[in-house]
Design brief:
Layout (H helix, E strand, L loop, with lengths): L10 E4 L6 H31 L6 H28 L5 E3 H34 L4 H4 L2 H27 L8 E2 L6 H5 L7 H34 L4 H30 L6 H24 L2 H19 L1
Parallel strand pairs: 1-3
Antiparallel strand pairs: 1-2
Protein name: G-protein coupled receptors family 1 profile domain-containing protein
Main location: membrane
Keywords: Cell membrane, G-protein coupled receptor, Membrane, Receptor, Transducer, Transmembrane, Transmembrane helix
Length: about 300
């Protein structure tokens, strides 16, 4: 993999979060708990949505895909972080680092597209309830999900192919807990102006390109909800949309802050990365389950079925 360009550097040292052994143990316990909660929450959402026929609707089809993405997203960075917190040497090969960059862009880009699709689904359900079945057919839903994967894969491939051509000379320490492209730029002795321009374009295209459809969908939704005379109907619509809005704000706010701001190697870079790649995947199943009566009811039904099965 472009050994010519990386002949002087074969591996990177990850700075991590702390060099104090006691703090590292505490961080290991904290992030192990976060990772287990993320896996349990998202796998539970996938299982409940797949097994409960009441949730076989476009909204929950997209939600199960979001849970799968969050499961993958957290698994790109957290296992390596947990390993490093128990290791004296926090190293990663150049190839491993670039692979991590690719999968971060693949999962994050895919999630940005999927959140936009979910906003359109809510717009169709609330603003055009009589036409909802035609507007959100099963074939269209599958096409939108595959389109999200295709767009995110193409974007990630372009980004990582550009990163392969970077020269890394003497600096080996990445001032971060994981490999992210902005952190790699700080170590490169190549001309990174083209890479920064393409990264900025990619962030704007996938970030703002998905955020604006979400924004306009919710403007229409809010006007539609305000025109509803029934207080019950209005509160139900707001409840359905609020979970998605919370997810959008958490994900897009921290993600765009990380990739549009100049990399500095500061704690702000680390915190914004933690927010969109670690905290948000853990919170999403909680946000959607705690604020959604249908999901809570389905979880109880599913747990009841499995408890009866194990009794017999």
């Amino acid at each position: 993999m472009a050994l010519r360009n990386h002949s002087t550097i074969t591996q990177f040292i990850l700075f991590g979060m702390s060099d104090d052994p006691h703090i590292q143990v505490l961080l290991f316990v904290l992030f192990l708990g976060i990772y287990l909660l993320t896996l349990l929450g998202n796998l539970t959402m996938i299982l409940v949505i797949r097994t409960d026929s009441h949730l076989h609707t476009p909204m929950y089809f997209f939600l199960s895909n979001l849970s799968f993405l969050d499961f993958c997203f957290s698994s790109v960075t957290l296992p390596k972080l947990l390993k490093d917190l128990l290791s004296e040497k926090k190293i990663i090969s150049v190839e491993g680092c670039l692979a991590q960059v690719f999968f971060v862009f693949l999962t994050a880009g895919n999630e940005a597209c999927l959140l936009s699709v979910m906003a359109y689904d809510r717009y169709a359900a609330i603003c055009h309830p009589l036409l909802y079945g035609q507007m959100m057919s099963y074939q269209l839903c599958k096409g939108l999900v595959w389109g999200s994967w295709s767009l995110a894969s193409l974007n990630a491939l372009i980004i990582v192919l550009l990163a392969i051509n970077l020269d890394f000379c003497d600096a080996q320490t990445i001032h971060h807990y994981t490999c992210e492209l902005p952190s790699l730029f700080l170590l490169s002795c190549s001309d990174i102006s083209i890479n920064i321009s393409i990264l900025s374009f990619s962030t704007i295209f996938l970030g703002l390109g998905n955020f604006f459809p979400i924004f306009f969908s919710y403007v229409r939704i809010i006007f539609n909800i305000l025109s509803v005379s029934s207080t019950t109907g209005r509160s139900k619509s707001f409840s359905t949309c609020s979970s998605h809005l919370i997810t959008v704000i958490l994900f897009f706010g921290s993600g765009m802050l990380r990739y549009l701001m100049p990399p500095s190697g500061s704690s702000l870079d680390l915190l914004s990365s933690l927010q969109y790649s670690v905290i948000t995947p853990m919170l999403n199943p909680l946000i959607y389950s705690l604020r959604n009566k249908e999901v809570k009811t389905a979880v109880k039904r599913t747990l009841g079925k499995y408890s009866q099965y194990f009794r017999h």
